[in-house]
Backbone:
């Protein structure tokens, strides 16, 4: 089966025929991500009145029941420390998260979900997973598995090369 | 070759073992995109003192020598009309782009690159392509080709399903 190529109204539309295959691949990767993110953002807003950054932050907290530092949150979400602070302030005011000191280090502040925050996130996460499954369900499972593996190789290359290039 | 799975400090770190394969695929796709974008953003800033949105806007204009409307720019870049206006204002002040009326429709304003803007973009685009090639060069060309094809299938599914779901 040939890959569909007839989409012209997004980032991929900027690829010229003569451009290197890697660049075309990057633009296609970018347009896939943007379409999925747009769809998820829209559904989160309509269904739960919430934003993608809030959802992503709750997802990280759910993954760390013992809490996570602000610096680690910033690094994992790849957003600035100031933005993380603003999000945590908001969610704390809504009693979805709490800040507390680590038992072994009084200076280190960690953030955790409250029980209410955990329930709230669980409802959103179930729906979010359904949305993603729906978006991908026109592709055969074996092809999705191959895609997962190939993206692993790409990620490995990017991390290696970006690390090397950053040191130049 | 097994896909590398040992990265734990980004969006993919939020995947649970029990989660549906589609969700894990989405988180891996998202983390690939974020790593590449971060790298490109950093290099654009260091090498050319410019931002990713500015580069993306110039790329769209380069693709449309006859000009493109503000609405079309907003749609193609997937950013709000206000943001596009601000970017075009900036670039016009720097004489990299110009606004003018379409010959066949006096009310329709189109944006084009100036000759200086075109030269400026060409320098950045050459480097940008090199950066992306470097990032991907640890993956065999045949594997990159397969990835391009599979992402085409994924994009097709996402566009179809997102369209259907938006109408619900």
Residues:
């Amino acid at each position: 089966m040939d890959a569909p190529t007839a989409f012209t109204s997004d980032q991929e539309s900027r690829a010229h025929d003569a451009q290197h295959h890697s660049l075309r691949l990057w633009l296609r990767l970018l347009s896939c991500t943007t379409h999925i993110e747009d769809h998820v953002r829209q559904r989160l807003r309509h269904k739960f009145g919430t934003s993608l950054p809030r959802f992503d932050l709750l997802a990280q907290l759910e993954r760390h029941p013992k809490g996570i530092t602000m610096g680690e949150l910033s690094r994992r979400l790849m957003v600035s420390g100031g933005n993380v602070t603003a999000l945590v302030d908001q969610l704390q005011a809504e009693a979805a998260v709490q800040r507390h000191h680590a038992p072994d280090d009084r200076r280190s502040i960690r953030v955790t979900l409250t029980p209410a925050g955990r329930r709230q996130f669980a409802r959103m996460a179930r729906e979010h997973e359904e949305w993603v499954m729906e978006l991908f369900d026109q592709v055969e499972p074996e092809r999705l598995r191959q895609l997962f593996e190939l993206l692993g190789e790409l990620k490995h290359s990017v991390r290696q090369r970006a690390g090397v290039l950053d040191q130049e």
About this structure: Chain A touches chain B through 78 residues (CB under 8 Å).
